[in-house]
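Much of our argument rests on the idea that a fold can be written as discrete symbols. This step matters because it turns folding into a mapping between discrete strings. The record that follows shows the chain in one-letter code together with its fold in token form.
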Amino acid sequence: MVHQAAFLAEWPWERLGNYKYWVYAPFLLKLFRTTFLSTHPEADNWYFYMFALVIARYTVQQAWNSVTRFHCFSQRYEIHSYAVGFEQIDREYHSDNHIMLQFLLVTLAHAWFPSFRNMPSWNGEGLLWVIIFHAGITESLYYWMHRAFHTEDLYKNYHSFHHQSVVPEPPTGFVTTMLEQLLQSLLVCVPILGAATMGTASMGLIFAYVITFDFLKCWGHSNVEFVPTWFRNLPGAKYLIYSPSYHSLHHTEQKSNFCLFMPLFDYLGGTVDPKTDSFYAELRKGNDEEIPEFVFLAHCIDVLSSLQIGFLFRTLSAHPFEAHWFLWPLWLPSAIATTIFWCLSQDTFVLHKYYLYKLKCMAWVVPRYGFHYFLPFGLDRINDFIEKAILDADEKGVKVLSLAALNKNEALNGGGMLFVKKHPNLRVRVVHGNTLTAAVIIKTLPEDVKEVFMNGATSKLGRAIALYLCSRGIRVLMLTTSKERFETIQKEAPAKFKNNLIQVTKYQAGQNCKVGHTLFHSCLYSLKSQTEYKHNTIFPMSSSIFVCCE
């Protein structure tokens, strides 16, 4: 976090990592004792309601994350595309600090203020008072507080941490320093305390206000312009409720649109961005369909790993897969969803978008799991999915589509050759990991190479390299004891280049290569090999191939 030396810039449990959740332990113990062990349980079931509220708040944030990251829901009115990286996700990992802080504050209020005890489940009069206190006090104080945090010193020491996320996502709204969140939490308490002072507070009111507050925070940071034109054109609507594009301008410009939820205070303070209306109108026209330059066509692996996708668990998707303990309770409902997914899915879907250097890339997913690729009766349907994805990519103008994992299985479609032969006029380049690796290896070799020696030359990767090199007039010494496999590859070579493929059966055949380049895998590069190929340059390669070039 930025400027940790500043007063209350760092959270007290920040260095604890995930151990911070032990803060809840005493209260959970209290809930257990009063519910199951005590002969005199709490009259208002305070801790039960508070933990229910905590769970509901996590659910709101999770739901918003899923909706905004699900491409078919968000793409048409998305404000900024291809902009959120793993660095932002890591920085926003602890976007629940406000939930813990406000849980502690409200629990203290319950202990200190008698009006917070034994509240009824619902009191409709309190709703009016909450609206009055929120609009009259919370909104106005937040507006001026927010403007203050954009002054030089406060911005540098505190608020700049929040604004590192130029393109917001739902969790971004809760990622602040402790001082900011403490002040904001006090403002959240104002309408609740106001209703309690008027004798109209209720547990339902606390639920409704806090959940609505979180909902609107996520709404404004959603990066998707959900607000329909007819709603914004209602009399007074644009003064009473902000839109995602309204707050997005605050993150990009940082000198306007300071309000909490009600733009009225920006209009009164003269801080409305002049582009607000035109920006909104342009977004509501809808975005054209995004055309990536590269598509990675993947598939689901298993039930647990499929939970680690961006529109389910945002943070987990930014880290290598691990079968976390808290995922196992989700296995059964996920397995049921898998079955429904299998029966009803009709097309591939966009998993996520990303930049690779300056290339726009997408990951598309075939709606099948790993085990489906071993069911003989379902293979034709899988190939139909893959073929349709290739044709869609070709029609849209995608430059390269890569078949991932089992989508390139030789037994399924010949590593993609089935589709290339069936549609010879494809403009999109259909590749997979092996062909890309072969291309990288070939690109690495110097142009003046005359002869190469290859181990593992009859593998899928070795075959591709050998055929390409021999067609360039390069002699390829293919190390293999299988004459049948060698001859199969030799038959694929153009007639006038067949003699460039030569079968050898011993490693020593590569010793005759003069000083040049050698591609070796570390597990094959023994001390003996170092001696035999000491005049050659060594390049790490795949687990089964090395090439030594004259």
Q: What stands out?
A: The radius of gyration is 31 Å.
